[in-house]
Design a protein that fits this description.
heterodimer; A: mainly alpha; two-stranded antiparallel sheet; 2 strands; disordered N terminus; B: alpha+beta; Ubiquitin-like (UB roll); 18% strand; elongated; binds fe (ii) ion; PaaB (chain B); Ring-1,2-phenylacetyl-CoA epoxidase subunit PaaB (chain B)
Chain lengths: 332, 126
C-alpha cells in the first residue's frame, strides 16, 4: 500500500495491486513493450511496483512545487505595480494552485491519498522544487520567476507530457496550455524593467544575479552524478536527462537575456560552437543539497505557512466531512 | 521576519509542530465533465475533491472553466462510475470480417450495372 487505508468498494472495483518487479517477468515484458510502442499506461493497468513508486514520487513532488511555488509570488500580489500586473499575477498564482490540484489527483490515481501526500510535505519527508526556498525580495524577482522559472518548468513539463502515464500526461497537457500565459506575462514584465529606467534595470540585474544559481540547480545534479535513471528513461517516467534539459533551457533563454544587455553572473557561461553544448561554472551542488535538505533561506517559512493554512482551514473541512463515506480514488 | 507582510501578521506556530491531516479530511473525489458549447457532448476533463455534489460543481467551475469556453458542467462521484476492467480489453478486439455492419459492405452499383448490361435489363428498359 502506498498511503491510506482506503479501498475501492463501489462499482469501479479496481484494486490497487501490489506488484513486484521480478515476480511477473511476462507481465513486465508486456508492460515494457506497450511503453516502447508509445502506448499510455492507465490507473487500472498492471505496472511494476517500482514504476508506481517512482511516478508517485515524481508527480507528488511536482504537485508540492506548484503549491509552494505560489508562495513567493503570492507575496507580491498586494504590491504588484499597477492593476494589469496585479490581475495577471492573481490569475497566474491561481493557475499554479490549480496545477497542484490536477497533479495531486493524477498522483492519487496511483494509490496514495491526497491527505498522505500533504502530510509528507508538512513533515518534510516529501520534497518540492528547490528554487522556492529562496525569497522574492523585489518586484524584479517576480518577473525573473514568471519568466525564467516558468520557462524552465515548461522545458521539464513539455518533456514529461510525452511520458507513459496517462493521467499525468493529461494533467500536463492542461498545465502546459496555461504555462504559455505565465511565460508570456513574465517575459513582458521582465522586458518592461529591462527597457525601463536605470533604477529598474539595476533592480532586474540584481534579481538575475541572485536567481541564477537556483536556476542552474533547477534541473537537478549533473548526469554524471545521478544514479539509476536508465530504467526510468526506458519506462518513460524520466523523459530527458538533467543536463539535456538544462542545455535546452540555456539554448532558448540565455540569448533572450543577453539581447537586453543584461549579464549573467558566470564568466564561463558560453555556448561551445563545436559541441553545440553550453559550458558553465560548477553551480555549487553542495549548496543545492544543503538547501533541499532544509538549509535554505525560506524552507522553514514555506512549511510553516502551509502548516498554518492546514491548521486554520481544518474546522471548515471537518464541518463538511462525511466520516462514514468510503474514500475512492479518481478514475482516470 | 518574513518579506511578506501577510505572513508576519499570522501567528505562525512552532516550526517543529507535527500537523497531520486526517484521512478523509480532503473529502471525496468527483469526476468532472465539461460541455464546451450547447449541443456538444459533455467531455471528461478530470476530477475535484469535494464534500458533496454541489460543492464539487463549484470547485469544478473554478478548476476547469476559468479560461476556455464552457456552457455547462456535470459532476459525478468517482465511485459511481462503472467501467470494464482494463484486463478485459480484448473483448473489444474487432472481428476482421465485420463489413456486414458497415455501409462499405454493401455494393449495390455492381449489381445494378450488371443487371443493366444483361439482356434482361436491355429488353425491359425501353
Ligand atoms: Fe504551474
Ligand atoms: Fe507557471
Amino acid at each position: 500500500m502506498y498511503g491510506g487505508g482506503y479501498i475501492f468498494e463501489e462499482p469501479n472495483n479496481r484494486q490497487v495491486r501490489e506488484e513486484k518487479i521480478h515476480d511477473e517477468p511476462e507481465k513486465l515484458a508486456a508492460f515494457e513493450d506497450r511503453i516502447a510502442r508509445g502506448e499510455k499506461i492507465e490507473p487500472g493497468d498492471w505496472m511494476p511496483a517500482e514504476y508506481r513508486r517512482q511516478l508517485i514520487r515524481l508527480i507528488e513532488q511536482h504537485a508540492h512545487s506548484e503549491i509552494i511555488g505560489a508562495l513567493p509570488e503570492g507575496t507580491w500580489i498586494t504590491r504588484a505595480p499597477g492593476f494589469k500586473r496585479k490581475l495577471a499575477l492573481i490569475a497566474k498564482v491561481q493557475d499554479e494552485i490549480g496545477h497542484g490540484q490536477l497533479l495531486y489527483n493524477a498522483a492519487e490515481t496511483l494509490g496514495k491519498t491526497r491527505e498522505a501526500m500533504i502530510n509528507d510535505l508538512l513533515s518534510g519527508k516529501s520534497k518540492y522544487s528547490n528554487v522556492f526556498n529562496y525569497p522574492a525580495k523585489t518586484w524584479a524577482d517576480v518577473t525573473v520567476i514568471g519568466f525564467l522559472i516558468d520557462a524552465a518548468a515548461i522545458v521539464n513539463q513539455v518533456a514529461n507530457s510525452k511520458g507513459s502515464y496517462g493521467p499525468y500526461c493529461r494533467a500536463l497537457e492542461r498545465i502546459c496550455y496555461e504555462e504559455s500565459f505565465h511565460l508570456k506575462q513574465g517575459h513582458d514584465a521582465f522586458i518592461e524593467l529591462a527597457t525601463g529606467t536605470p533604477a529598474q534595470r539595476e533592480m532586474l540585474q540584481d534579481a538575475l544575479n541572485r536567481w541564477w544559481k537556483p536556476i542552474m540547480h533547477f534541473f537537478g545534479p549533473p548526469d554524471k552524478t545521478s544514479q539509476h535513471s536508465e530504467k526510468l528513461m526506458q519506462w518513460k517516467v524520466k523523459m530527458a536527462s538533467n543536463d539535456d534539459m538544462r542545455n535546452q533551457f540555456l539554448d532558448m533563454y540565455v540569448p533572450k537575456i543577453w539581447e537586453l544587455g543584461l549579464t549573467l553572473p558566470d564568466p564561463l557561461l558560453r555556448k561551445n560552437a563545436e559541441t553545440g553544448r553550453w559550458e558553465y561554472s560548477d553551480p555549487d551542488w553542495d549548496e543545492f543539497f544543503r538547501v533541499i535538505n532544509g538549509g535554505g533561506p525560506c524552507n522553514e517559512e514555506r512549511l510553516q505557512v502551509r502548516k498554518w493554512a492546514e491548521e486554520h482551514g481544518r474546522w471548515v473541512r471537518k464541518a463538511l466531512m462525511k466520516p462514514t463515506e468510503k474514500h475512492t480514488l479518481p478514475v482516470a | 521576519m518574513s518579506l511578506d507582510p501577510r505572513v508576519n501578521r499570522l501567528k505562525l506556530g512552532d516550526p517543529n509542530a507535527v500537523i497531520k491531516v486526517e484521512e478523509g479530511e480532503n473529502w471525496n473525489v468527483y469526476e468532472v465533465f465539461h460541455q464546451e458549447k450547447r449541443g456538444a457532448h459533455h467531455e471528461h476533463v478530470g476530477c475535484v475533491h469535494a464534500p458533496d455534489p454541489q460543492m464539487a460543481l463549484i470547485f469544478a467551475k473554478e478548476q476547469f472553466a476559468r479560461r476556455k469556453k464552457c456552457v455547462n458542467l456535470w459532476v459525478v462521484k468517482s465511485a459511481d462510475i462503472l467501467a470494464f476492467d482494463v484486463e478485459d480489453e480484448d473483448m473489444f478486439a474487432n472481428n476482421l470480417e465485420k463489413t456486414y455492419r458497415d455501409a462499405s459492405g454493401f455494393k449495390v452499383m455492381e449489381k445494378i450495372n450488371k443487371f443493366k448490361q444483361s439482356s434482361k435489363g436491355t429488353t425491359d428498359v425501353k
